[in-house]
Design goal:
single chain, 288 residues, alpha/beta, Rossmann fold, seven-stranded mixed beta sheet, 13 helices, 43% helix, globular, binds adenosine-5'-triphosphate, binds magnesium ion
Length: 288
């Protein structure tokens, strides 16, 4: 089972939107897919029409209570081949509760092992922080996708995220997480700033930036209130096409890597010529 964390400690950059729609697109392409909602906000859970407060047990129970297997918290979605391990606000307690658990970084890894034969891909929606929940997600994952909202300060925090992934890869065994790609979100074609940021991201991160970008689109913001992914809410929309293209790109990238094992390591990324800080500075100067 390939496990992909959707992570960026920055809030509102498109993590949940990407988790939900990418997972639906992967399931449509025939992949048996599991979403793990690892955010106490429960937005991925709500995104499929569930009321988080009415759900029990949830991923919180699977993480914190050894007698509750993760298989017993997983629920169906209306999408064929797509299941969900839901969350609600109770999960916020586990940031603190996990701190005193032996092997606290590996709790999710252990739980997911019990369902690894049931799914081709697991997509984890991370909270907007670099706390123990995100750490558990990164340690459990084979890959990370980082949604980046194209705007000033888009690069801010990326270095810290890469360093965290790098440290995890080096010091926590067994763990071999790699950055699969950066996904540019909220792209606006006609905005100078948007294309400028996009250009800089591609110059700095090269092939690591997915070819597919996600444009700003009101359909994407509407779909969760209908309890649906945009792929079922507005299947013919541009956003649906973009998330389908992203799924395709990921499937291709993963199969190419399986042949060459050519994934970029977080270490390689931080060896670029300009630092993320320098790029932020140049963006700020350009805006003056
Ligand atoms: N491409 C887009 N165009 C328009 N609206 C979008 C787009 N992507 C996401 N949104 C909307 O922006 C808001 C933030 O997106 P989302 O919830 O996916 O971000 P997030 O990174 O998961 O946030 P958090 O850090 O709070 O978990 C949501 O209301 C979502 O519907
Ligand atoms: Mg979210």
């Amino acid at each position: 089972m390939r496990i992909i964390a959707i992570a960026n400690q920055k809030g509102g950059c498109g993590k949940t939107t990407t988790t939900v729609n990418l997972a639906v697109a992967l399931a449509e392409k025939g992949k048996k897919t599991l979403i793990v909602d690892l955010d106490p906000q429960g937005h991925s859970t709500i995104g499929f029409g569930n009321d988080p407060d009415k759900l029990s047990p949830t991923i919180y129970d699977a993480l914190m209570k050894a007698q509750i297997p993760i298989s017993s918290v997983i629920i169906d979605t209306k999408i064929e081949r797509l299941n969900l391990a839901p969350s609600n606000v109770l999960l916020s307690g586990s940031e603190l509760e996990l701190a005193s658990v032996v092997g606290r970084e590996f709790v999710l890894t252990e739980r997911l092992k019990t369902v690894e034969d049931k799914y081709d891909i697991c997509v984890i929606d991370c909270p907007p922080s670099l706390g123990l929940l995100t750490l558990n997600a990164l340690v459990a994952s084979t890959d990370v996708i980082v949604p980046v909202q194209v705007q000033y300060y888009a690069m801010e925090g990326l270095k810290q995220l890469f360093e965290t992934a790098n440290i995890i890869g080096k010091h926590l065994h067994p763990c071999n997480v790699k950055i699969l790609g950066l996904l540019l979100t909220f792209v606006e074609k006609r905005r100078m700033l948007s294309s400028q940021t996009q250009k800089q991201m591609r110059e700095y991160f090269g092939d690591l930036v997915f070819d597919t970008v996600i444009h700003r689109c009101v359909r994407l913001a509407e779909a969760p209130s209908a309890g649906q992914a945009v792929l079922t809410y507005a299947p013919e929309s541009r956003s649906s096409a973009e998330y389908r293209a992203l799924a395709e790109e990921i499937i291709d990238k993963v199969s190419a890597e399986q042949i060459t094992d050519g994934k970029a390591s977080p270490e390689q990324i931080s060896e670029g010529e300009a630092s993320p800080e320098q790029i932020i500075e140049s963006q700020a100067l350009a805006g003056r």
